[in-house]
Amino acid sequence: MPILTALYRYPVKSIHSETLMHSAIDPSGLPDDRAWLIADHSGRFMTGRDWPQMVRIRADVDAGALTLNAPGMPTLRVARDTFDQAHPAQVWKDEFGAWHGPVAADRWLSDFLGTEARLLYTGQESQRRVKHRPDLPLSFADRYPLLLIGESSRRQLSDWAGQDFAMARFRPNLVVDDAVPFAEDGWQRIRIGDVVLRMVKPCERCVFTTVDPDTGEKSSDQEPLRTLARRRKGEGGVLFGQHALAESAGHIEVGMPVEILD
C-alpha cells in the first residue's frame, strides 16, 4: 500500500519549502501554506520563475508572526496583526483583496531581491476562491490548495533525464511512495488517515522546475522541463503531479498509509 513519505508547505509563495512531520488539513489546504505573497507595487504576484533567488528565503510561522531568513540578511519577524492595510492582489488572472504590512518587510525583500517588492498576507481568511468553488477560500497558491506527487514518479523522471532531481524542485505538499511511477495520474479519490482527498487535475509545469531549490540557479540544460516536455506532454501542457482537494478537515502524518478509494 502506498504511504505518505513527505509533507511540505510554503508560507510565502515561491520561497524554500518548510518540512512538516504532521499537519492539520482541510478543504483550503494546509494552514499557512502560501498565506503570504511577494508582490510588486500594484499587488501583482512575483515568483521564482522570474526571481529565482526567492527560493533562498526560508520562513518560520507561529500563531503570532512570520519570520524570514535569507543569506546575507538579518532575521525579519513580522507580526500577523501588522498586516492591517487593505491592498489589491493578483495571482494570474485572479484579482482580489489582501493585506499589506510594515514598510520594513517591503524594504527587506526589496534589498534581498534587488527590486521593489511588497509583502502581502491573505488575512485570517483569503478573499480569493477556488475556481468553480465559490465556497472554498484559496491562498496565493497557483490554482488549487494541494499538490501531490509520487516519489516513484520523481525517480522515473530522474532516470529518463540521467540526473537526480530533488523533489523540492516540484514544490509538492504531499509526497507518496510505494506506488508505480505516475500511479497518481489514475487516482480519483484517496484516504490518508481520516481525510479523503480528491484529485482535481494534473499540474502543468513551467520554467520554475529548472531552478535549483537550494541555490536559486537555473539549470543551463533546461532540465527537468526539457525531459518532461518529451515524456509528459498533455493537452494542458507539460504535466507532473496532481492538484488535489481535501473533502473534509482532519490531521495527517508522515508514514500514514494511503488508501486508494477510486
Automatic annotation (TrEMBL):
It comes from the Bacteria. Residues 107-261 form the MOSC domain. This is MOSC domain-containing protein. InterPro entries: MoCF_Sase_C (IPR005302), MOCOS_middle (IPR005303), Pyrv_Knase-like_insert_dom_sf (IPR011037). It comes from Jeongeupia naejangsanensis.
